[in-house]
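Handout, page 2. Input:
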Amino acid sequence: MNKTALGVVFGGKSSEYAVSLHSAASLLRQIRTERYAITMIAISKEGEWFLYEGSIDALEHDRWQQEKCTPCALTHDGLLILHEGSYEIRHLDCIFPVLHGKNGEDGTIQGLIEMAGIPVVGCGALSSALCMDKDRAHKLASLAGVEVPRSVCFSGLPSQAELETLTRSLTFPVFVKPVRAGSSFGITKVENPANLRAAVRDALRYDREVIVEE
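Output:
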């Protein structure tokens, strides 16, 4: 039986880089290798792409760059692998992005894969971008008649007085979140307005916009 050539992408320029490594390791241990020919594609924290040919254990514990890595880039219909003094193009039937947070779940990698003409596992660029944006996802759901929590969205760090005015219509406790980040970092449950500004400051470490919701 011909195997499906599957690229698995992990790592990435995201605060959830380490989460991605654990997810990718779990996936790779479960894939039925009698059906799929796996190409492991690693993206460093700096955004460099590599064909990874090391162990799953090293991947999971962030030691993958100490094993065999070859620079690569996505190209039409597959992967451009940059050997010293030569190159190789490896066809991929499909790519499975196992990336978390920004530059992984927000439509960026999905759009890149779609531009390369390669089928992608999971959501496409538009749905990924919309669902990663907590404010716009709420608005779309609300327009469709789905009840959503009351919230306010803003950019930058308001003063304490401005924050209290912005959140006056909300009932505490509230949750403070980066608008376009994952669900692991920068999220704080706030019991009273006095603690709101510190939570907003923390959320701004991960995105330029913040949502405060009941």
